[in-house]
User: Fold this.
Amino acid sequence: MSEPERFKAEVEANIRGLSADRDVQALSRIWAREVTRHRYTYNFTWMGRPIIQTPQDMVALQEVIWKTRPDAIVETGIAHGGSLIMNASFLHLLGGDGKVVGVDIDIRAHNRVEIEKHPMAGRITLIEGSSIEQSTVDRVKAAIAGRSRVMVILDSNHTLDHVQRELALYAPLVTRDCYLVVFDTLLEDMPADLQGNRPWGPGNGPKTAVHRFLQGNDRFTIDHDIEHKLLITVAPDGWLRCVRD
Assistant:
């Protein structure tokens, strides 16, 4: 066994160990619950823009993008634009003309200004409109026309009905071996007092939508290795790999 092969095998063993360690997993869930009370994910930026993600998920996205090498990434939910810029920077490092398409029902003027003047702006297309309106989806399809490797990230309205509709509309865009990432599945594992006045919660959120989606779709499988090695992720059961054309 070569040294790279040995190291890869060691990492795989590490991940299996983390998967089997219920105490570590429980501690990770407690940690995630308690830092949520302090709005932990709001504390980070990417190349100057707020990203509202955990550093662990940011690293995981980098690994997935480097491994699968998409030439288009579609994201629903823009907020301050940090995620768009991060993923555009990853595509820039891959070379080629990879682009990111961001969809949001309301792109705030100040956020649009900052995104459009950013050094990564040339790789970003902004589409304002409801992600579940067919006219919006048609604009997304036009923006990625001719792309051979497409990744999708869903991170907008987190209610069950909305995410189910997004999955139905955007999953067909994902190409084989690329990923469909459904963020904030963790919301359904959080106690009720952390939901505030939001309309989602246990049984009415992204994780339930993912499980229902997978019952009727054999193109995707959950990549549990990602969440097992991260331990801290807002997307448990949400890292979906496309395994069929």
The chain has a mean pLDDT of 96. The beta strands are 45-46, 49-50, 72-76, 99-104, 124-128, 150-154, 179-182, 220-222, 239-242. Residues 1 and 232 are 32 Å apart (CA to CA).
